[in-house]
Design a protein that fits this description.
Elements: E1 10-14, H1 21-38, E2 47-52, H2 57-63, E3 70-74, H3 82-93
């Protein structure tokens, strides 16, 4: 199998606390610098990734332009338990969490 190459620079910044608009602005400056002075014409635009302990989605949305190549995400120091991971996946999929997994789902009888 052939390996796919990104053909772009990826800048990663790890923040130990909450993400601020200054952090986003700093990453935007780094991305702009690489795009203007480091990358070649045949390379794709630089991608910036900010990993932080806490982030506020509205701050990210309001600080960065819609077509930005900068992404922010929260990290965890420890993996969640199997039960917590299952709950998060069910929540993301829109599935109602049941305390008793052996409980049968009884639908409406009409």
């Amino acid at each position: 199998m052939d390996a796919l190459l990104l053909r772009c620079y990826v800048l990663i910044d790890l923040k130990r606390d909450k993400l601020t608009h200054q952090d986003l602005g700093q990453m935007q400056m780094y991305v702009n610098y690489f795009d203007r002075y480091v990358k070649t014409d045949d390379e794709l635009p630089t991608i910036g990734i900010l990993l932080c302990h806490r982030k506020h989605d509205a701050l990210v949305e309001l600080t960065l332009p819609k077509d930005s190549n900068i992404f922010a995400s929260k990290y965890q120091l420890y993996l969640p338990s199997k039960e917590e991971l299952k709950r998060q996946l069910e929540e993301a999929a829109g599935i109602e969490h049941r305390e008793n997994p052996d409980q049968e789902d009884i639908g409406d009888v009409r």
